Amino acid sequence: MTDYSEGIHRLLESEAWQAELEREFELLSQSYGLRLHAEGLERLRQGPMRDLVLAPDEATQTLYSFSEGEIGLRECLIDLREAGIGGELSGGQQGVDLLEDLVVRPRLFAAAARDKGWEREPEFAEWLTRKREWLVLRTLVQAQTALQGPISEAESRAYYQANANKFRSPEEVEIREVLMATEAQAQALREEIEQGVEMSALLNRPGVGSHARPGKKGKMTLRRLFRSRYPQLVDAAFAAEEGELVGPVETHDGFAVFRVLERKGGDIMPFERVRKRAEALLRQRREQEGIVELIGALRAKGETQVVFFTDRLQ
């Protein structure tokens, strides 16, 4: 575990951290035979994440499969909601990239950790034990919370009104971007743009790239959750005004120049649209309060340690 931790620390200090993550993910995807199932993806795109309701047979439908296991629609939907994704999944590669970031990567990296034997290290084993105990405790509290009955509309609305900032639509910044290998090259492109040259024309030149998907002419939409992939680009885009030309901005693979085309989102959504999400968040808060109450009750009885017999819960 020590060597692994030191390696991660070095990577975090390196400018190539994001690129290294990308390469590692691609290698793991090939090594484990990662496969995206089109039927599952199509079902996931049939409505906003906050409102999507899966039938029992759909919940276990496979979205991704790899040699170490499968990722079903239900666990994928849970991951997305916990990450604050309530809207519709973007079409094309952008939606797939989001799934890979939030759902697939953690599982592939965990599988790699097991294969490399890191789970036998004391630190990893202790973390895993605590994680399992937390899941058991949460299951017990969920069962107790369910006995309280369904959450009423009045309760959901009161929670919504008291926590309005939690129900804002995702902020997005649409940009058109060009990318060069060096700062001097990017600065030269900026000067041409300032003189009226279109970015789409610049992208036809050899050596001029973009983080946007092929065929989009440098146009891409950034959200704050993409910061893990494009930290400098996202920070600069959200700090800029609509219409502003920005750059060169150093990224993990070069220097970017972009113009902000449009800013949208950030508005508080109406209750009717987020009611199910409000119910889910209120239920989650009750579960958290239940955990605190359970621990308090155990302490009141003089219990200093809780032992989980997980084999009896099967």
General description of the model:
The protein has helices at residues 2-13, 17-31, 38-44, 56-59, 73-82, 92-115, 122-146, 153-162, 183-194, 199-202, 231-239, 271-300; strands at 35-36, 62-66, 69-72, 172-180, 219-223, 245-251, 254-264. The longest helix is centred in the last third of the chain and has 30 residues, at 271-300. It starts with a helix and ends in a 14-residue tail after the last helix. The protein has a four-stranded antiparallel β-sheet with strand order 5-4-7-6. Strands 1-2-3 form a three-stranded antiparallel β-sheet. The model is unreliable at 1-17 and 306-314 (pLDDT under 50). Strand 6 (245-251) and strand 7 (254-264) form a beta hairpin. It has three domains: 2-117, no CATH class; 121-166 and 271-314, no CATH class; 172-264, Chitinase A, domain 3, CATH 3.10.50. Helix 7 (122-146) packs across helix 12 (271-300) and helix 8 (153-162) crosses helix 12 (271-300). The protein is globular. The relative contact order is 0.11. The chain has 314 residues and is of the alpha+beta class.
